[in-house]
Amino acid sequence: MCDNHLDGEWYRFTGMAGDAMPTFCISENHCGTHAPVWLNGSHPNESEGIVQRQACASFNGDCCMWNTTIGIKACPGGYYVYQLTKPSVCYHVYCGHFYDICDVMDCRGTCQDSGDCVCNSGTVLGPDGQTCLDENECEQNNGGCSEICINLKNSHRCECNKGRVLGKDGKSCEDIASCQHNNGGCSHICVSSGEFYECQCPRGLVLADDKLMCQVPVLCKPSSIEVSVPKDLVGGLELSLTNSTCKGVSNGTHVNINFNLKTCGTVINVVSDKITATNLVTGMPKQTPGSNGDIIIRTSKLLIPITCEFPRLYTITEGYVPNLKNSPLEIMSRNRGTFPFALEIFKDKDFDEPYREDLPVLKLRDSLYFGIEPLMHVNGLETLVESCFATPSSKNDEILKYYLIKDGCVSDETVKQYSSKDHLAKHFQVPVFKFVGRDNKEVFLHCQVLVCGALDERSRCAQGCRRRMRRSSEVEEAGHYSNHLLTGGPIVIDLEE
Protein backbone atom coordinates (compact mmCIF):
# COMPACT_ATOMS: atom_id res chain seq x y z
CA MET A 1 0.00 0.00 0.00
CA CYS A 2 0.96 3.66 -0.35
CA ASP A 3 -0.49 6.69 1.45
CA ASN A 4 -0.01 8.97 -1.57
CA HIS A 5 -3.68 10.09 -1.30
CA LEU A 6 -2.91 12.01 1.91
CA ASP A 7 -2.27 15.73 1.64
CA GLY A 8 -2.11 17.42 5.05
CA GLU A 9 -5.52 16.38 6.44
CA TRP A 10 -6.07 15.41 10.11
CA TYR A 11 -6.55 11.73 11.00
CA ARG A 12 -7.27 9.60 14.07
CA PHE A 13 -6.09 5.98 14.44
CA THR A 14 -8.92 3.63 15.49
CA GLY A 15 -10.08 0.03 15.17
CA MET A 16 -7.69 -2.29 13.37
CA ALA A 17 -5.31 0.64 12.85
CA GLY A 18 -4.55 0.64 16.59
CA ASP A 19 -4.63 3.52 19.06
CA ALA A 20 -1.76 5.78 17.99
CA MET A 21 1.40 5.90 15.88
CA PRO A 22 4.30 3.83 17.24
CA THR A 23 7.18 5.90 18.62
CA PHE A 24 9.81 3.25 17.94
CA CYS A 25 11.37 1.95 14.74
CA ILE A 26 9.19 -0.39 12.69
CA SER A 27 11.19 -2.68 10.44
CA GLU A 28 10.53 -2.80 6.69
CA ASN A 29 7.71 -4.86 5.16
CA HIS A 30 5.26 -4.14 8.00
CA CYS A 31 2.01 -2.15 8.13
CA GLY A 32 1.05 -3.47 4.70
CA THR A 33 3.88 -1.74 2.84
CA HIS A 34 7.60 -1.82 2.03
CA ALA A 35 8.68 1.26 4.04
CA PRO A 36 6.50 1.78 7.17
CA VAL A 37 6.35 5.28 8.68
CA TRP A 38 6.70 5.66 12.48
CA LEU A 39 6.84 8.63 14.88
CA ASN A 40 10.37 9.63 15.85
CA GLY A 41 9.45 11.49 19.04
CA SER A 42 7.02 11.58 21.95
CA HIS A 43 3.30 12.31 21.90
CA PRO A 44 2.29 15.73 23.35
CA ASN A 45 0.13 16.54 26.37
CA GLU A 46 -3.23 18.22 25.84
CA SER A 47 -1.88 21.51 27.19
CA GLU A 48 0.84 21.64 24.51
CA GLY A 49 -1.67 22.06 21.67
CA ILE A 50 -0.45 21.25 18.17
CA VAL A 51 3.19 20.13 18.05
CA GLN A 52 5.47 19.21 15.14
CA ARG A 53 7.26 15.87 15.14
CA GLN A 54 9.48 13.97 12.73
CA ALA A 55 8.01 10.89 11.03
CA CYS A 56 10.51 8.36 9.65
CA ALA A 57 10.17 5.65 6.99
CA SER A 58 12.36 2.61 7.59
CA PHE A 59 13.85 0.57 4.76
CA ASN A 60 16.92 -1.51 3.97
CA GLY A 61 18.06 -1.59 7.61
CA ASP A 62 17.85 2.19 7.98
CA CYS A 63 15.18 3.28 10.50
CA CYS A 64 14.98 6.76 8.98
CA MET A 65 15.88 6.45 5.29
CA TRP A 66 13.23 9.12 4.51
CA ASN A 67 11.58 11.58 6.87
CA THR A 68 8.91 14.25 6.96
CA THR A 69 7.30 16.57 9.55
CA ILE A 70 3.75 15.95 10.76
CA GLY A 71 1.46 17.75 13.21
CA ILE A 72 0.06 16.06 16.37
CA LYS A 73 -2.54 17.18 18.92
CA ALA A 74 -3.79 15.49 22.10
CA CYS A 75 -7.58 15.79 22.21
CA PRO A 76 -9.80 16.22 25.33
CA GLY A 77 -11.39 12.82 24.61
CA GLY A 78 -8.14 11.04 25.46
CA TYR A 79 -6.89 10.35 21.93
CA TYR A 80 -4.57 11.93 19.36
CA VAL A 81 -5.09 13.35 15.89
CA TYR A 82 -2.32 13.56 13.27
CA GLN A 83 -1.84 15.96 10.38
CA LEU A 84 -0.27 13.61 7.82
CA THR A 85 1.69 14.86 4.82
CA LYS A 86 1.89 13.10 1.46
CA PRO A 87 4.86 10.66 1.34
CA SER A 88 7.68 11.73 -0.97
CA VAL A 89 7.86 8.33 -2.69
CA CYS A 90 5.97 5.05 -2.74
CA TYR A 91 5.62 2.71 -1.06
CA HIS A 92 5.11 4.41 2.34
CA VAL A 93 2.28 3.91 4.85
CA TYR A 94 1.75 5.59 8.22
CA CYS A 95 1.68 2.89 10.92
CA GLY A 96 -0.80 2.51 13.75
CA HIS A 97 -0.02 0.50 16.89
CA PHE A 98 -2.01 -1.22 19.65
CA TYR A 99 -0.69 0.05 22.95
CA ASP A 100 -1.13 -1.76 26.25
CA ILE A 101 -4.06 -1.01 28.55
CA CYS A 102 -2.44 -0.62 31.95
CA ASP A 103 -3.27 -2.49 35.16
CA VAL A 104 -2.86 -1.21 38.70
CA MET A 105 0.36 -2.77 39.94
CA ASP A 106 0.01 -5.20 42.84
CA CYS A 107 0.59 -3.67 46.27
CA ARG A 108 2.31 -5.31 49.21
CA GLY A 109 0.63 -4.87 52.58
CA THR A 110 -2.26 -2.42 52.85
CA CYS A 111 -3.21 -0.89 49.55
CA GLN A 112 -5.65 1.99 49.05
CA ASP A 113 -7.34 1.65 45.67
CA SER A 114 -7.07 5.10 44.16
CA GLY A 115 -8.27 3.90 40.78
CA ASP A 116 -5.16 5.31 39.10
CA CYS A 117 -3.36 3.26 36.46
CA VAL A 118 0.37 2.65 36.81
CA CYS A 119 2.45 1.84 33.72
CA ASN A 120 5.44 -0.46 33.58
CA SER A 121 9.00 0.76 33.09
CA GLY A 122 9.68 2.15 29.63
CA THR A 123 6.10 3.38 29.14
CA VAL A 124 4.15 6.49 30.14
CA LEU A 125 0.46 6.98 30.79
CA GLY A 126 -1.48 8.39 27.82
CA PRO A 127 -4.03 11.21 27.94
CA ASP A 128 -6.95 8.79 28.31
CA GLY A 129 -5.62 7.63 31.68
CA GLN A 130 -5.63 3.99 30.53
CA THR A 131 -3.19 3.53 27.65
CA CYS A 132 0.51 3.02 28.29
CA LEU A 133 2.48 4.65 25.47
CA ASP A 134 6.09 3.89 24.69
CA GLU A 135 8.52 6.32 26.31
CA ASN A 136 11.19 7.69 23.97
CA GLU A 137 14.21 7.60 26.28
CA CYS A 138 16.40 9.08 23.54
CA GLU A 139 14.66 12.47 23.90
CA GLN A 140 16.07 12.94 27.41
CA ASN A 141 19.84 13.48 27.44
CA ASN A 142 20.19 11.22 24.35
CA GLY A 143 19.23 8.26 26.53
CA GLY A 144 22.56 8.54 28.31
CA CYS A 145 24.37 7.46 25.12
CA SER A 146 27.60 9.21 24.21
CA GLU A 147 26.93 8.98 20.44
CA ILE A 148 23.86 7.24 18.92
CA CYS A 149 20.62 6.44 20.76
CA ILE A 150 18.14 4.00 19.18
CA ASN A 151 14.64 3.99 20.68
CA LEU A 152 13.04 0.54 21.01
CA LYS A 153 9.68 -0.65 22.26
CA ASN A 154 9.67 -0.04 26.03
CA SER A 155 13.47 0.41 26.02
CA HIS A 156 16.43 1.80 24.05
CA ARG A 157 20.01 0.95 23.12
CA CYS A 158 23.23 2.85 22.46
CA GLU A 159 25.36 2.51 19.35
CA CYS A 160 28.63 4.02 18.14
CA ASN A 161 29.81 5.59 14.91
CA LYS A 162 31.85 3.55 12.43
CA GLY A 163 35.30 2.67 13.70
CA ARG A 164 34.29 2.82 17.38
CA VAL A 165 32.89 0.23 19.77
CA LEU A 166 30.54 0.36 22.74
CA GLY A 167 32.20 0.41 26.14
CA LYS A 168 31.47 -1.98 29.02
CA ASP A 169 28.93 0.47 30.47
CA GLY A 170 26.81 0.09 27.33
CA LYS A 171 26.69 3.88 26.83
CA SER A 172 30.15 5.28 26.10
CA CYS A 173 32.13 4.66 22.89
CA GLU A 174 35.79 3.77 22.55
CA ASP A 175 38.23 3.80 19.67
CA ILE A 176 39.22 0.47 18.21
CA ALA A 177 42.75 0.93 19.45
CA SER A 178 44.51 -1.98 17.78
CA CYS A 179 44.28 -5.47 16.40
CA GLN A 180 43.93 -6.73 19.98
CA HIS A 181 40.35 -5.42 20.16
CA ASN A 182 37.92 -7.38 18.02
CA ASN A 183 40.66 -7.86 15.39
CA GLY A 184 40.57 -4.08 14.81
CA GLY A 185 37.18 -4.49 13.18
CA CYS A 186 38.83 -6.29 10.24
CA SER A 187 36.99 -9.16 8.62
CA HIS A 188 40.21 -11.08 7.91
CA ILE A 189 43.77 -9.90 8.60
CA CYS A 190 44.72 -7.06 10.96
CA VAL A 191 48.33 -5.77 10.83
CA SER A 192 49.71 -3.42 13.53
CA SER A 193 52.47 -0.90 12.85
CA GLY A 194 53.41 1.16 15.88
CA GLU A 195 50.40 3.24 16.89
CA PHE A 196 48.56 2.44 13.67
CA TYR A 197 46.94 -0.63 12.20
CA GLU A 198 45.36 -1.60 8.91
CA CYS A 199 43.19 -4.36 7.53
CA GLN A 200 44.50 -6.65 4.83
CA CYS A 201 42.94 -9.40 2.75
CA PRO A 202 44.00 -12.90 1.76
CA ARG A 203 45.25 -13.31 -1.79
CA GLY A 204 42.43 -12.98 -4.28
CA LEU A 205 40.18 -10.77 -2.13
CA VAL A 206 40.05 -6.96 -2.13
CA LEU A 207 39.39 -4.43 0.63
CA ALA A 208 35.95 -2.79 0.54
CA ASP A 209 35.34 0.98 0.73
CA ASP A 210 35.07 0.83 4.55
CA LYS A 211 38.70 -0.45 4.68
CA LEU A 212 37.55 -3.19 7.05
CA MET A 213 35.78 -5.89 5.05
CA CYS A 214 37.35 -8.15 2.45
CA GLN A 215 35.23 -8.90 -0.57
CA VAL A 216 35.33 -10.88 -3.78
CA PRO A 217 36.44 -8.78 -6.78
CA VAL A 218 33.49 -7.77 -8.96
CA LEU A 219 34.03 -6.03 -12.31
CA CYS A 220 30.98 -4.11 -13.58
CA LYS A 221 31.22 -3.66 -17.36
CA PRO A 222 28.74 -2.17 -19.84
CA SER A 223 27.75 -5.56 -21.21
CA SER A 224 28.71 -7.98 -18.44
CA ILE A 225 29.42 -8.49 -14.75
CA GLU A 226 32.52 -10.53 -13.91
CA VAL A 227 33.03 -12.24 -10.54
CA SER A 228 36.36 -13.86 -9.67
CA VAL A 229 36.37 -16.05 -6.55
CA PRO A 230 39.75 -17.35 -5.24
CA LYS A 231 39.92 -21.15 -5.37
CA ASP A 232 41.15 -21.25 -1.76
CA LEU A 233 37.83 -19.72 -0.71
CA VAL A 234 35.80 -22.10 -2.86
CA GLY A 235 37.28 -25.32 -1.52
CA GLY A 236 35.41 -28.24 -3.05
CA LEU A 237 32.22 -26.32 -3.68
CA GLU A 238 30.51 -25.81 -7.02
CA LEU A 239 29.61 -22.16 -7.65
CA SER A 240 26.48 -20.96 -9.41
CA LEU A 241 24.24 -17.88 -9.52
CA THR A 242 20.57 -17.43 -8.55
CA ASN A 243 19.75 -19.25 -11.77
CA SER A 244 21.63 -22.47 -11.04
CA THR A 245 22.29 -23.10 -14.75
CA CYS A 246 24.84 -20.25 -14.63
CA LYS A 247 27.88 -21.98 -13.19
CA GLY A 248 31.44 -20.90 -12.43
CA VAL A 249 34.43 -21.94 -14.55
CA SER A 250 37.82 -22.62 -12.93
CA ASN A 251 41.05 -21.31 -14.44
CA GLY A 252 43.31 -22.98 -11.88
CA THR A 253 43.57 -20.13 -9.35
CA HIS A 254 40.05 -18.66 -9.45
CA VAL A 255 36.50 -19.64 -10.25
CA ASN A 256 35.06 -17.07 -12.68
CA ILE A 257 31.40 -16.33 -13.35
CA ASN A 258 30.33 -13.97 -16.14
CA PHE A 259 26.76 -12.76 -16.63
CA ASN A 260 24.85 -9.63 -17.67
CA LEU A 261 21.88 -7.58 -16.49
CA LYS A 262 19.36 -9.77 -18.32
CA THR A 263 20.58 -13.26 -17.42
CA CYS A 264 21.11 -15.66 -14.53
CA GLY A 265 18.35 -14.22 -12.32
CA THR A 266 19.88 -10.75 -12.01
CA VAL A 267 17.49 -8.35 -10.23
CA ILE A 268 17.37 -4.68 -11.34
CA ASN A 269 16.19 -1.97 -8.93
CA VAL A 270 16.14 1.83 -9.01
CA VAL A 271 17.11 3.17 -5.58
CA SER A 272 17.50 6.90 -4.99
CA ASP A 273 20.26 8.17 -7.32
CA LYS A 274 21.40 4.86 -8.79
CA ILE A 275 20.39 1.66 -10.56
CA THR A 276 21.44 -1.53 -8.77
CA ALA A 277 21.93 -4.96 -10.31
CA THR A 278 22.10 -7.76 -7.74
CA ASN A 279 22.67 -11.49 -7.84
CA LEU A 280 23.87 -14.18 -5.44
CA VAL A 281 26.79 -16.55 -5.87
CA THR A 282 26.02 -19.83 -4.10
CA GLY A 283 28.54 -22.57 -3.38
CA MET A 284 27.21 -26.09 -2.86
CA PRO A 285 29.08 -29.38 -2.44
CA LYS A 286 29.60 -31.27 -5.65
CA GLN A 287 27.52 -34.40 -6.02
CA THR A 288 29.62 -37.43 -6.82
CA PRO A 289 28.43 -39.41 -9.87
CA GLY A 290 26.72 -42.63 -8.90
CA SER A 291 25.98 -41.48 -5.36
CA ASN A 292 22.23 -41.24 -6.07
CA GLY A 293 22.13 -38.09 -3.99
CA ASP A 294 23.36 -39.79 -0.80
CA ILE A 295 26.53 -37.89 -0.04
CA ILE A 296 28.30 -36.76 3.09
CA ILE A 297 28.72 -32.96 3.35
CA ARG A 298 31.75 -31.69 5.25
CA THR A 299 31.84 -28.19 3.72
CA SER A 300 29.42 -25.41 4.58
CA LYS A 301 27.32 -23.53 2.04
CA LEU A 302 28.95 -20.40 0.56
CA LEU A 303 26.88 -17.26 -0.15
CA ILE A 304 28.40 -14.20 -1.85
CA PRO A 305 26.02 -11.28 -2.60
CA ILE A 306 26.98 -9.46 -5.82
CA THR A 307 25.97 -5.82 -6.45
CA CYS A 308 26.78 -3.47 -9.31
CA GLU A 309 25.72 0.18 -9.18
CA PHE A 310 25.01 2.41 -12.19
CA PRO A 311 24.10 6.13 -12.27
CA ARG A 312 20.66 7.28 -13.37
CA LEU A 313 21.63 10.49 -15.14
CA TYR A 314 23.79 10.69 -18.28
CA THR A 315 24.96 13.45 -20.59
CA ILE A 316 25.69 12.41 -24.17
CA THR A 317 27.41 14.67 -26.69
CA GLU A 318 27.62 13.87 -30.37
CA GLY A 319 27.89 15.55 -33.72
CA TYR A 320 25.14 15.06 -36.25
CA VAL A 321 26.80 11.74 -36.99
CA PRO A 322 28.90 9.37 -34.89
CA ASN A 323 32.60 9.15 -35.57
CA LEU A 324 33.94 6.29 -37.68
CA LYS A 325 34.58 4.08 -34.66
CA ASN A 326 31.09 4.77 -33.30
CA SER A 327 32.36 4.48 -29.72
CA PRO A 328 29.67 3.96 -27.06
CA LEU A 329 29.40 6.34 -24.14
CA GLU A 330 30.41 4.72 -20.87
CA ILE A 331 30.05 6.67 -17.62
CA MET A 332 31.66 5.38 -14.45
CA SER A 333 29.55 5.50 -11.28
CA ARG A 334 31.88 5.76 -8.30
CA ASN A 335 34.02 3.17 -10.04
CA ARG A 336 31.25 0.65 -9.53
CA GLY A 337 29.94 0.12 -13.06
CA THR A 338 28.79 1.54 -16.36
CA PHE A 339 25.46 1.67 -18.13
CA PRO A 340 26.11 2.46 -21.81
CA PHE A 341 24.18 4.74 -24.13
CA ALA A 342 25.07 6.03 -27.59
CA LEU A 343 23.71 8.86 -29.70
CA GLU A 344 23.13 7.45 -33.18
CA ILE A 345 22.34 9.19 -36.49
CA PHE A 346 20.11 7.11 -38.77
CA LYS A 347 19.64 7.13 -42.54
CA ASP A 348 15.82 7.13 -42.49
CA LYS A 349 12.74 7.11 -40.28
CA ASP A 350 12.87 3.33 -39.82
CA PHE A 351 15.77 3.92 -37.38
CA ASP A 352 17.31 0.59 -38.35
CA GLU A 353 20.46 1.62 -40.22
CA PRO A 354 22.79 4.15 -38.54
CA TYR A 355 25.63 5.85 -40.41
CA ARG A 356 28.76 3.80 -39.81
CA GLU A 357 31.51 4.12 -42.38
CA ASP A 358 30.42 6.98 -44.62
CA LEU A 359 29.80 10.43 -43.22
CA PRO A 360 26.55 11.85 -44.65
CA VAL A 361 26.27 15.15 -46.45
CA LEU A 362 22.91 16.77 -45.61
CA LYS A 363 21.25 19.83 -47.10
CA LEU A 364 19.08 22.25 -45.15
CA ARG A 365 15.93 20.82 -46.72
CA ASP A 366 16.80 17.27 -45.58
CA SER A 367 15.58 15.58 -42.39
CA LEU A 368 17.87 14.53 -39.57
CA TYR A 369 16.98 11.26 -37.79
CA PHE A 370 18.68 10.71 -34.45
CA GLY A 371 18.12 8.58 -31.38
CA ILE A 372 19.34 7.65 -27.89
CA GLU A 373 20.23 3.97 -28.06
CA PRO A 374 20.99 1.71 -25.06
CA LEU A 375 23.74 -0.81 -25.72
CA MET A 376 22.24 -3.09 -23.05
CA HIS A 377 18.52 -3.93 -23.24
CA VAL A 378 17.08 -4.41 -19.74
CA ASN A 379 13.48 -4.87 -18.62
CA GLY A 380 12.11 -2.95 -15.64
CA LEU A 381 13.70 0.38 -16.57
CA GLU A 382 12.63 3.36 -18.66
CA THR A 383 14.33 6.52 -19.91
CA LEU A 384 13.49 10.18 -20.26
CA VAL A 385 15.36 12.53 -22.59
CA GLU A 386 15.41 15.57 -20.30
CA SER A 387 17.16 17.84 -22.77
CA CYS A 388 18.77 17.95 -26.21
CA PHE A 389 20.46 21.09 -27.50
CA ALA A 390 22.71 21.96 -30.44
CA THR A 391 25.95 23.96 -30.53
CA PRO A 392 28.19 25.02 -33.45
CA SER A 393 31.18 23.27 -31.84
CA SER A 394 31.85 20.16 -29.79
CA LYS A 395 31.83 22.19 -26.54
CA ASN A 396 28.61 21.69 -24.60
CA ASP A 397 29.10 24.95 -22.65
CA GLU A 398 28.94 27.14 -25.74
CA ILE A 399 27.08 30.44 -25.26
CA LEU A 400 25.40 29.89 -28.63
CA LYS A 401 23.06 26.94 -28.17
CA TYR A 402 19.66 25.92 -29.48
CA TYR A 403 17.32 23.63 -27.52
CA LEU A 404 15.33 20.94 -29.31
CA ILE A 405 14.13 19.35 -26.04
CA LYS A 406 14.10 20.99 -22.61
CA ASP A 407 12.72 19.72 -19.26
CA GLY A 408 11.41 16.65 -21.09
CA CYS A 409 9.35 18.87 -23.44
CA VAL A 410 9.81 19.45 -27.17
CA SER A 411 11.04 23.04 -27.53
CA ASP A 412 11.11 23.16 -31.34
CA GLU A 413 7.72 22.43 -32.92
CA THR A 414 9.44 20.80 -35.91
CA VAL A 415 10.80 18.00 -33.69
CA LYS A 416 8.87 14.75 -34.13
CA GLN A 417 9.24 11.78 -31.77
CA TYR A 418 8.76 8.20 -32.97
CA SER A 419 7.76 5.15 -30.97
CA SER A 420 10.47 2.54 -30.48
CA LYS A 421 10.51 -1.23 -30.14
CA ASP A 422 12.92 -0.91 -27.20
CA HIS A 423 11.43 0.92 -24.21
CA LEU A 424 14.83 2.45 -23.38
CA ALA A 425 15.46 3.87 -26.88
CA LYS A 426 14.19 7.30 -27.98
CA HIS A 427 13.93 8.31 -31.66
CA PHE A 428 13.49 11.80 -33.12
CA GLN A 429 13.25 13.60 -36.47
CA VAL A 430 14.05 17.28 -37.08
CA PRO A 431 14.74 19.31 -40.26
CA VAL A 432 18.44 19.93 -40.81
CA PHE A 433 19.55 23.39 -39.67
CA LYS A 434 22.74 25.40 -39.23
CA PHE A 435 23.77 28.26 -36.98
CA VAL A 436 23.80 31.81 -38.35
CA GLY A 437 27.21 32.85 -39.65
CA ARG A 438 29.32 32.08 -42.71
CA ASP A 439 31.80 29.97 -40.75
CA ASN A 440 29.21 27.92 -38.87
CA LYS A 441 28.98 24.81 -41.04
CA GLU A 442 28.98 22.23 -38.26
CA VAL A 443 26.37 21.21 -35.71
CA PHE A 444 26.79 19.11 -32.56
CA LEU A 445 24.06 17.63 -30.38
CA HIS A 446 24.15 17.21 -26.59
CA CYS A 447 21.50 15.11 -24.83
CA GLN A 448 20.85 14.42 -21.16
CA VAL A 449 19.17 11.08 -20.35
CA LEU A 450 17.59 9.98 -17.05
CA VAL A 451 16.98 6.30 -16.17
CA CYS A 452 14.07 5.35 -13.84
CA GLY A 453 12.19 2.31 -12.63
CA ALA A 454 9.42 1.42 -15.07
CA LEU A 455 6.91 0.66 -12.28
CA ASP A 456 7.52 3.87 -10.32
CA GLU A 457 4.49 5.99 -11.19
CA ARG A 458 5.95 9.03 -9.38
CA SER A 459 9.38 8.98 -11.00
CA ARG A 460 10.68 11.89 -13.08
CA CYS A 461 10.46 9.66 -16.18
CA ALA A 462 6.76 8.98 -15.56
CA GLN A 463 6.08 12.73 -15.28
CA GLY A 464 7.35 13.35 -18.83
CA CYS A 465 7.13 16.98 -19.97
CA ARG A 466 7.35 19.30 -16.95
CA ARG A 467 8.21 22.85 -17.93
CA ARG A 468 8.18 24.45 -14.49
CA MET A 469 10.51 22.11 -12.68
CA ARG A 470 11.69 22.16 -9.09
CA ARG A 471 15.34 21.93 -9.87
CA SER A 472 17.03 22.01 -6.46
CA SER A 473 16.81 18.31 -5.59
CA GLU A 474 17.52 17.16 -9.14
CA VAL A 475 20.60 19.32 -9.54
CA GLU A 476 21.91 18.01 -6.25
CA GLU A 477 21.24 14.45 -7.38
CA ALA A 478 22.98 15.02 -10.69
CA GLY A 479 26.03 16.30 -8.84
CA HIS A 480 26.86 12.75 -7.80
CA TYR A 481 27.81 11.80 -11.35
CA SER A 482 30.84 12.33 -13.49
CA ASN A 483 29.38 13.11 -16.91
CA HIS A 484 31.77 12.09 -19.67
CA LEU A 485 31.11 13.53 -23.12
CA LEU A 486 31.30 11.59 -26.37
CA THR A 487 32.17 13.89 -29.27
CA GLY A 488 32.10 12.83 -32.91
CA GLY A 489 31.32 14.03 -36.39
CA PRO A 490 30.81 16.74 -37.38
CA ILE A 491 28.62 16.86 -40.45
CA VAL A 492 29.27 19.53 -43.06
CA ILE A 493 26.14 21.36 -44.17
CA ASP A 494 25.92 21.55 -47.98
CA LEU A 495 24.59 25.05 -48.71
CA GLU A 496 24.82 24.78 -52.51
CA GLU A 497 21.58 24.10 -54.43
From TrEMBL:
One of its GO terms (molecular function) is calcium ion binding. The keyword ATP-binding does not apply. InterPro entries: D8C_UMOD/GP2/OIT3-like, EGF, EGF-like_Ca-bd_dom, ZP-C, ZP-C_dom, ZP-N, ZP_chr, ZP_dom. It holds the Pfam family Zona_pellucida. This is ZP domain-containing protein. Transmembrane segments: none annotated. It comes from the Eukaryota.
